[in-house]
Amino acid sequence: MVTVQRWSGxxxxxxRDALRMSLRDFAAYLxxxxxxxxxxxxxxxxxxxxAESQGILDTALGRAPDDARTRFAEALGMSxxxxxxxxxxEVDSHKxxxxxxxxxxAGRLREYLTPSEGAQWLESSSTRLDHPEAQxxxxxxxxxGVAVFHLVQPHEPAALTDLAVWRYRSYASDxxxxxxxxxxxxxxxxxxxxxxEYVLSLYCxxxxxxxxxxxxxxxxxxSTPSVLVDRGAPGGPAPLACTVEESLLATGFxxxxxxxxxxxxxxxxxxxxxxxxYASHSSERSLTTDELVACELTVQALWCxxxxxxxxxxxxxxxxxPERYGWRFLRAAAxxxxxxxxxxxxxxxxxxxxxxxxxxxxxxxxxxxxxLRESAG
Length: 377
What we know:
- There is one protein chain.
- By secondary structure, the chain is an alpha+beta fold.
- The chain has three domains: 9-76; 90-291, no CATH class; 292-376.
- 47% of the residues lie in helices and 16% in strands.
- The chain contains 13 helices and eleven strands.
- It has helices at 9-19, 23-30, 34-43, 51-62, 66-76, 103-110, 160-186, 213-223, 242-251, 289-314, 327-338, 346-359, 361-376, and strands spanning 90-100, 114-115, 124-128, 136-142, 146-155, 200-207, 229-230, 238-239, 259-260, 267-271, 275-280.
């Protein structure tokens, strides 16, 4: 039977998720206040409830149904459930290309688009576009002035290196394509609008030929594909020797900037400096692709927004935005992205924390907020 040596806010949250209870129901189940549970979970792994509460949590785990204890063990990494293994690599590539077009332009463009069903606090509208190579292309236009292209491109590469090289080579066509489409949509009203500068990727792995530690390493490599590519090659990005990938898969690969947000038995997931890699092992309990995409859209929209403010500062300007999207907007965004919600699962919280950390968005939000607040006087 699974036991917990010392409960922290993290284990308390995982137990609540395993029991599939809301925060309020879990508090009632334990016989404590909603605020007590909220404080535990907000403290995460660094917060340890007092001795009396430790006993309450021990008792709750002991009387939990068998299926809940199994889910709890898997979430803690105490399950030996194997990762899925197949003979080929199948991965869905999701690319995000953000560009700041301005609040006024975004407002005019959104009049012709369909309101999105994303986060209500970050208004957006969207439309489908044709792309020469993507299975699907959706343009999301946020009321705060950011447009984000989302491209979906399934792949069956012979090796991870092939996928990594394709990713970098495709940038050469994706970025100018996004620039031209924005100009077409703005119908000449694009003077001063920056060009898309970068591409962020999300890889959803659906099958692979690895097992055990190699499977885990493959996901890490997907989140940091630059380690498989010579980006300075004379003819453009080129693959490193095939032995590099083979060696890394055999011996393991890690980096301090890679953050795991997978749950044992449910998913393997990593966020890195180049993007996110995710593999589901339980369709009923893992994050959905829509949830992963929604998180990335929010993060990339705000990253691009703060990048615009940073650029104004570096150009020697006093940054300014419409009051609705001033420093209070950024303060609210930071709070929403860093505070756990009552109905969220631990997976959602871990996903957001990992992506926030590797993207550096939390610090960018603080810096941009300070710059706007200073300019506002």
